Amino acid sequence: MNHSTNSPSLLAAQFENDGYLIVRSLFSPEEVQDIETRFKEIHNDGKGTPGFYEPALCKEAIDRPDDPLNKYPRVPQPHRFDKLSKHYLLHPKVRQVLVEILGEEPLAVQSMFYFKPPGARGQELHQDQFYLSVEPGTCIAAWTAIDYCDAENGAMMVVPKTNHYDVVCPEQADPSKSFTKHYVRPPVGTKPVLVEMEPGDTLFFNGSVIHGSGPNRSQSRFRRSFICHYATSNAERISDHYLPCLTFEGKEISIETNEAGGVCGEPYGGHAH
């Protein structure tokens, strides 16, 4: 595992200071190929493990018949029906990093796969904790690149040091640029930075960190990613979309559903990157 530092304390300090951390080559080329091959199969199987594989990414895509996301929709919560996805959601190397940066055992709450084909819109800046509503504490994302990610094919962008920023009610996103409707404006004096990643690199970030991605302007390159979310073991409540939680031993844990009104006066559940 190629960390930017060999010291767990420095690793945790970097995550606390910046709100995010890139672990280079967390997964080997063989493991990346393993994930890529499996999701090609899921996509080609066609159309539906009922309740999990979505024929359209979101309502906005339905009104856009030529939207490439209609052909390559996301795969939400694949660990609930696919053994390989569950294996990587609960991978020991992911646990190792999470324990180092959190100082306690994590709970797994979500997996997703995104194809982001050429021509796909991006997703405006947002905060994950707005959707997951973990209490106490927040969620943590582990975003693994399956393809090389750069500005052309819509790499991730993060706003450093927004990990202690309040979760806010989003503004309306521009639908010509974003396939989801929410936009969180960065605080004054901050701006997003592009995160270029190689296949197998994993970006860990705090649930309050403002992040998003631009459109895939490439003519031929996908920007595929395997994305997982976690909470700390002391979590007592979470949005019901993310239940049941899993320990890294694979045991299901039921915690309370967070039915609080949220920062907009109502709970939100859907989530994407």
Q: What number is the mean pLDDT?
A: 89
Named at the architecture level, the CATH assignment is Sandwich
The CATH class turns out to be Mainly Beta
How would you describe the shape? globular
Structural class: alpha+beta
What share of the residues does DSSP label as strand, in percent?
15-25%
What does this structure look like?
This protein has 7 helices and 16 strands. The protein has helices at 8-18, 29-46, 59-62, 68-71, 83-89, 92-102, 129-132; strands at residues 20-23, 75-76, 106-114, 123-126, 139-145, 156-158, 171-172, 182-183, 193-194, 202-206, 211-213, 225-232, 237-238, 245-246, 252-253, 256-257. The chain is of the alpha+beta class and 273 residues long. The protein has a single domain (8-257), classed as q2cbj1_9rhob like domain (Jelly Rolls).
